[in-house]
Amino acid sequence: MTTVDEMVGSLRDLGFRVESGNLAPEAIHLKSIRTDLSSLDHHQRGYFQVQDEASQLVSHLVQPQPGERVLDGCAGLGAKSTHLAQLMENQGTITAVDNQGWKLTRLVENAQRMQISCIETLEIDVCELAGMQDFFDRILLDAPCTGLGVLRRNPDIKWKVKPKDFYRLHLFQKQMLARLASLLKPGGVLVYATCTFSVEENEATLESFLSEHPQFSLESARPYLPTGCASTVNRVGALQTWPHKHGVDSFFAARLRRE
């Protein structure tokens, strides 16, 4: 266990240029890195996780509570799963779902490194989930998307995205949201997130889902985000970050409540 201040002090002692995050309270920024961070003793002991600050805000929007059942619908390597576990104080159950087993293997290894025991994994396509009707208190869908929000770090993405990808992913995102909606308890929270700024994948997907699922309503992200994040809430009340405004990746996230 460690604190943000202790971590900042330790990294500065090692010669790193360290700054506090601008948005997430647990975020720190390392400048001009010339070291493999995974080789540091602090990383091997599980004291920190590499994750963009905008991505951290998504877990705050989910706002999981100790003892709850939480589903991470597209867990990948588990950066958000482990952050959710931290916010839950490692109490409760997080079911991390992904259809690529090698990613879940890495997730388990990462959770063990960070001494997290509340995560269980399930290798399956999220659209095939069954037998868990009204089961979860909170669900996070960090959906597959064009990934344009991380252009500043992965500029080659712009050559890989095709015009038809936006609508194809929009349909897939709607399908995943519809499947997960039935797994949420009444009164539960569903957070839909992408790392893109495409209106078709963000606002259009959200509007289409709400029109077809009247038992869900959109809640403003503002009360659930850390202090100082007012500028990250867009006109519809969703989280929207921008590299040129906030110095982070472009993320979109909407908090939905099942009535």
How would you describe this protein?
The chain has 259 residues and is α/β, with parallel strands linked by helices. It folds into two domains: 41 residues, no CATH class; 206 residues, Vaccinia Virus protein VP39 (Rossmann fold, 3-Layer(aba) Sandwich). The chain has nine helices and ten strands. The strands form two sheets. Strands 3, 4, 5, 6, 7, 8, 9 and 10 form an eight-stranded mixed beta sheet that branches. It has a two-stranded antiparallel ribbon with strand order 1-2.
Please render the helix and strand layout as text.
Elements: H1 4-13, E1 17-20, E2 28-31, H2 41-44, H3 53-62, E3 69-72, H4 79-87, E4 93-98, H5 101-113, E5 119-123, E6 136-142, H6 157-160, H7 163-181, E7 184-194, H8 203-212, E8 216-219, E9 239-240, H9 243-246, E10 252-258
Parallel strand pairs: 3-4, 3-6, 4-5, 6-7
Antiparallel strand pairs: 1-2, 7-10, 8-10, 9-10
